[in-house]
Amino acid sequence: MRLSVGDTLPEVETPPIDRLRIAYMAVSMRDPNLVHVEDEVAARSGLRSVIAHGTFVVSYAGAAVSRAVGVDAVRVLKVDVTAPVFPGDVLRTRAVVTRSEPVEEGEMLTVDLSVTRHDGTEVGRGSASVLQQAVT
Amino acid sequence: MAREVGTRFAESEFYIDPARVEEYVTALGVAPEQDYRAEVGSVVPPGFFMYVTSYGAEPIHDALDFDMLRTVFGGSEVEHRSPVRVGDRLTVRPWISGVTEKDGKSGHLTFVELTTEYSREDGTIVALERSNTVQRG
């Protein structure tokens, strides 16, 4: 897929981020923080239930880019987590090419990223730098 | 341990085991590419470094004296300098690159920026990650 400034990458919608998915990530990452698995602990943090790891938001933003350009083209991925993600949330990532700079191998594209919950709340925002190889 | 800029934590080794990458992709439920295979030689997904930084990070959180009930992850930036592939063995070097204290509407906030360098055996840094953690109170 050749990209230009103004192009929107195909939207990626996640499956529901259910409790099993969150627990699976917690175990896989060896993360002992019970805010991801125990509602009582989450409540003591002022949350209505357990929350997903920031890893989900960052990774979904990254996947929206890499699914369009390939994992080997992503040079920088920057994502700020702006709101919690709760069990059952479905996230969508909007990715828009906003800048192009010439580099030796082709052009470096800047892709602005916004990850939102189904209720429209933005849970992550950031950008990616993507190398688009010159056509030979 | 004081949260002082420049403080370096013990370096460790992370083997990018295909099983780790497969678990990460399975937990997400979204593959980083259509038909992506977590096998030796595949380039790792762009979000995978956050998994690596978080993997077994409890000693660092303890050293930073974080109260996890008052702590939230703020975000991360990963710079990929060279392709990192499944099967690679990386040296992981985390250090404190920023500490900021602020008083706002929600009370006192401490922002800690942790920078993690990932390098190969020859010392080449292949990726650099900066992550931010915020503690209330």
Characterize the structure shown:
The complex is a heterodimer of chains A (136) and B (137). Chain A has 136 residues and is of the alpha+beta class. Chain A has a single domain (12-133), classed as Thiol Ester Dehydrase, Chain A. Helix content of chain A is 24%, strand content 35%. Chain A contains three helices and five strands; from the N terminus they run βαααββββ. Chain A has a five-stranded antiparallel sheet with strand order 1-3-4-5-2, with helices on one face. The longest helix of chain A has 16 residues, at 54-69. The model of chain A has no long low-confidence stretch (mean pLDDT 96). With 137 residues, chain B is α+β, with helices and mostly antiparallel strands. Helices cover 18% and strands 40% of the residues of chain B. Chain B has one domain: Hotdog Thioesterase (Thiol Ester Dehydrase, Chain A, Roll). The two termini of chain B are 18 Å apart. In chain B, strand 3 and strand 4 form a beta hairpin. Chain B has helices spanning 18-28, 48-54, 58-63, and strands at 12-15, 71-80, 89-104, 107-119, 125-136. Chain B has a five-stranded antiparallel sheet with strand order 1-3-4-5-2, covered by helices on one side. At the A-B interface, helix 1, helix 3, strand 2 and strand 5 of A face helix 1, helix 2 and strand 2 of B.
